Amino acid sequence: MKFIVKLFPEITIKSSPVRKRFVKQLRRNIRTVCKPLDEQVTATGTWDVIHVETQLTDRQDIEQLAERLCCISGIHQVLEVAEFPLTDFDDILEKTVAAWSGALAGKTFAVRVHRSGSHTFTSIDVERFLGAGLLERVESAGVKLKNPDVRVELEIKHNRYFMVQRRLDGLGGYPMGTQEPVLSLISGGFDSTVSSFLTARRGMNTHFCFFNLGGHAHELAVKEVAYYLWSKYSASHRVRFVTIPFEGVVEEILTKVDNSQMGVVLKRMMLRAATAVAKEMKIQALVTGEAIAQVSSQTLHNLAVIDSVTDMLVLRPLIAMDKQDIINTAARIGTEEFAKNIPEYCAVISKNPTTCAKPERIVFEENNFDFSVIDAAVQNRRNVSVHDIVSDDLTREEVEVVREVGTNEVIIDIRHPTEEEIKPFTLPGHDVLTMPFYQLATRFPELDRNNHYLLYCEKGVMSQLHAMHLRDAGHDNVGVYQP
């Protein structure tokens, strides 16, 4: 099975050395992301396209590999193709009829050929020959050059040709690792997850910095969405998750800072802490999910006051986006359901927030603040690999993980519906409930408490995190099934 990977158009306008470096990095990323599915996967190509070959034969496995390719930044399109040696037009027609006769029945169609190399014919010559041949030999509704029901596509490369079986949209952007790393301030809500995705899509290895204001359950919820973002869009690179305990900082603000100034002061404290962490990690830029005027602390004036506490570049990918645009993006990338269930603790601090903070007033309020508290918070931070995110939490809470299912145990498949659709999970002799992770909080309490339930997901990470959530909520009849 072969895929042709088309480069994101902005890569193709780079200088030759830059373009070659980007393509080399993209090949490396493809191999890293796809190897867990196929150890023998190859990615070759140096300029126009990348050819990805896999030994997978099971259709579900091929679908999973195609989905992974579509989530790698730097890829514009993914073409699933069948490859043949280039002989003559009659041979191409025979194979085209065999491949497309069923799909063209009763449909209008157009033939599209892209050719590169030295040949005695043009792309239009091939299109006309195949179009006439299909029209004669297939019971279609005829040729329609504009907006046909079906596009029959071929790619001719020198002495080979590729029949395009389907064309999938890629993620776009630049290959991960071609830009400098950044540290994203993530709360788990709509804004910070989308901003983290956007910087990752642009080729920046995006590490996470989380300010814990809501205890263990809050941290677990944010780690869950961070793991999702990494595993789906950034798995070619290692990413760190830094947790800074900020409850003491919030208490200091609540007791020593005027109510109207609390929001701005909190954001300044977060930038101070994140700057210290980023410098130790040798990271040159911070990322936040702020959008202009979305809340009181995000006016242009307040953002300038907030930024004045750091000498580090602060990136705000969402700065001109509407809230609905952000929510729509979250839905598209799969973080919407996470965000719906994570409260924005930062937003509840100030009841009468200022929209035009005066620098001298902020400095006056901060003079009452004990900065040793923020130093202690940074000192007590935890820094773990997102890849090992569950192991970090299992040191504090036991979660039962089993590989054999008992007769009185019920399996719950908690994967996202799109994952479940690509690769349905069944276990002979056992019923499997499908309950997406974002429905567990409301639906699990309705289940029979006399049963014991085992959560299942592809890698066992999400299921373990959700088992922790349910145990925190008082449900002791839950564990994890990991085949």
Structure classification? alpha/beta
Proportion in helices: 40-55%
Question: What proportion of the residues form beta strands (DSSP E)?
Answer: 15-25%
Distance between the termini: 27 Å
Shape: globular
What's the mean pLDDT score? 90
Description of the molecule:
It is a single chain. This protein has 483 residues and is α/β, with parallel strands linked by helices. The chain is built from 18 helices and 19 strands. The protein has helices at residues 9-12, 16-34, 59-70, 89-104, 123-137, 190-201, 215-233, 247-256, 262-280, 300-307, 323-333, 336-340, 359-366, 371-379, 389-394, 417-422, 440-443, 461-472; strands at 2-7, 42-44, 49-53, 75-85, 108-116, 142-143, 150-157, 160-172, 182-185, 206-212, 240-245, 285-287, 313-315, 382-385, 401-402, 409-413, 432-434, 452-456, 478-481. The protein has an eight-stranded mixed sheet. The protein has a six-stranded mixed sheet with strand order 13-12-9-10-11-14, sandwiched between helices. A five-stranded parallel sheet has the order 15-19-18-16-17. Strand 16, helix 16 and strand 17 (432-434) form a beta-alpha-beta unit. The model has no long low-confidence stretch (mean pLDDT 90).
